[in-house]
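Subject: LanC-like protein 3

B.,
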Amino acid sequence: MENPRCFANRFVDYKGALLVGQGVEKAVPTVKDLIDKIIRNVPLGSTECDGGLYDGPAGVAYMLYHVSESALFSEHKDSYLKIAKQIIDVSVVYVDGEKDKNMRAAFLLGGAGIYAVAAMVYKALGLADFVKPLTKFRNLWEVCSPINFLECGSDELFVGRAGYLCGALVLKQKLGIEILSMDQIQEICRAIIESGKQYARRKRKPFPLMYSYYGTEYLGAAHGLSSVLQMLLCYQEVLSDGERDLVWQSVDFLMNQEQNCNWPAELGAVIERENELVHWCHGAPGVAYLFAKAYLINKKPQYLDTCIRSGELVWRKGLLKKGPGICHGVAGSAYVFLLLYRLTGNSKYIYRAQRQVETYGTQSICPRSCGAADTAGFAEFLFTEEFKAGSCSVSSVYSLFEGLSGTVCFLVDFLQPDQSEFPLFSVFV
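Prediction pasted inline below.
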């Protein structure tokens, strides 16, 4: 019976050698052509800025910034940054006029993410003006520090406190400066923990921290427990010993919710194998990043083993039919293999990522770490007729999380896997 959510993976798995290809010099023009297509089609009007970094034009600006940071595209750096500035300038004006201050504090869907990307783009261009969006970002900490600042759920990644902390982490990584003071970070983290404790007590949960978003107790990266805990781990140095214990107990609780290498979208659900979600947003491809962070902090093998099992599931079911993007598409699945490569150094994961890329159509592109050698994989699948004919149409086809801008980020990271990271969701800071 055909799986409604993913294509069958017919690729032969890694046998100790990568696929023979044509090298990086053939891949860069292919990626550049894809970028040119996105630039020609991205909306630049002030009425078309909805969606934030997730599926708005601001996400395209981030993609151009990301590409400009790669030495492989150094000759296009200035032009990409100038276009990124044009796009992000319009988005900044748009969110400056946002009347809902709570939405200005949203990272992936609102102002905080746009201000963060504006600061990165301006700084990369050598503009002193980068301080202005940075200050706007910093001032938002007061908006999201009250425990219940959002009725829908104040702690998740897209609009809540976890997202705001994630933005501060990205800025620290990209700009080399701590955006928030230790006291500000501590206050936000403690609000997250207190919010989770209150909810868990109110709902009589047998574990210390839990959250909901629009009434649903999500577990995955998009709106759920895993990304909230991941951000708390990223800032665990500001927590008390007791608070850290609560976080680690919750990490282990979530690890125990695994069902056949995957996690249900919401707490208490039973995974139906024929309707299984294997997405970054819901399922193992996103939850894996929490356990990667946990492993990087304390080196306990069970966390790495959990990541590896997630990767095995993604190899079987990660050729998704919901498009090329990173949220619930093929590129988001393929990023798991780049994560596992960075964690283990095992070339098997480069091979699997190759399969996904050629799936997408760049045929025979090879990461730097392969010498000039090989390619194929999930990247390979992105470019096949099977994928083009069988995948769902995407409304935000050029966007970062649902469309081709996320694909570009993946292809660039695939070419330099030692530096690869899921966009705006780092575990290596």
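The longest strand covers residues 377-381.

T.
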